[in-house]
Amino acid sequence: MENQLKKLMNDAIQMINKYNNIYICSHVQPDGDNIGSTLALAMAIKKLKKNVSIIKVDDIPSDYIFLPHIDMFEEQEYNDSVDLFISLDSSDLIRLGAGKKFALKAKNIINIDHHITNENFGDINIVSPSSGSTGEIVYRFIKDMKVDIDKDMATCLYTAISTDTGRFMYSNTTYETHLIASELLKIGIDINNININLYQSRTIERTRLFLEALNNLELISENRIALVAVTQDMLQNCNAKMEDTEGIVSFIRNIDSIEVACMLKEMSKEEVKVSLRSKKHVDVSKISIKFGGGGHAKAAGCTLYENIETAKDMLLNEISLSFR
Ligand code: AMP
Ligand code: MN
Ligand code: MN
Known about the structure:
Mean pLDDT: 97
Strand content: 15-25%
Distance between the termini: 34 Å
CATH architecture of the largest domain: Alpha-Beta Complex
Number of helices: 12
Strand order of the largest sheet: 3-2-1-4-5-6
Low-confidence stretches: none
Number of strands: 12
Shape: globular
CATH topology of the largest domain: inorganic pyrophosphatase (n-terminal core)
CATH class of the largest domain: Alpha Beta
Largest sheet: 6 strands, parallel
Helix content: 40-55%
Oligomer: single chain
Bound molecules: adenosine monophosphate, manganese (II) ion
């Protein structure tokens, strides 16, 4: 497996060397792993004197605005001159939103990811489900490119790794995760500044939403399932945005008896985005796949095109089945 990944990385590096107009695509509702890996790889490719653009497909949550070169994230005019398209941290083309049409026109696609549900849609698929974050794969990739990782790149990679491993707490955290993190510290990143920006800058609006959401916490199935629904009305009441729901689902998973935590986000009257988390036994990626989504065993998501009450019933039904 290791050798196979190494070979795929070498093939991908050769492909990068061959082309000049390179697009790296973000995913919808981008998270720290996606944003951090994308910026780091874009900076590395830029050092090879290539034209590299980042395709921004959704708003950047305020937590990540501090990252170096975040203004490289730009909505791109669609054009025919895409040589190479690189997708990071996305298990399928739909997750790329408006980026999908660039992918379909590109001469080649490199797909770098760690989701077990990845659909291998690239010409080269560097997919490593044993990696805790795409950031870890991108760290190794940049090393193999023989590009020096500078402080800015290290800041972005550390953000990717820290956010996707729940600050090095989740079960996807490995020996290698810590080795890479220590290398990034050696480069001289300002860990205090990174942590303040990522974890100690919660706005008042986000705090109010957190309280309102928790006020509506539901405990189901002998307190093994926790559910929170965030509606558009709640956002309005708190003057908050949907991205301010970050952290709620992992907070409710922390309740001692809970095995599955579920957050429903009412995007519109007929669209509900779902976040699922589990603690020990339940594989939530299997639940989200049933609704056309994806993810990991302990963190997954999907979208239901239903009203929030129907979506809730459908989900609770599936989650309950997973306890049998
Ligand atoms: P979230 O709950 O949005 O933080 O997502 C948890 C995990 O599930 C992440 O790894 C996402 O990439 C994945 N995920 C969330 N929504 C979807 C979806 N609609 N399709 C595929 N994967 C998803
Ligand atoms: Mn992601
Ligand atoms: Mn990820």
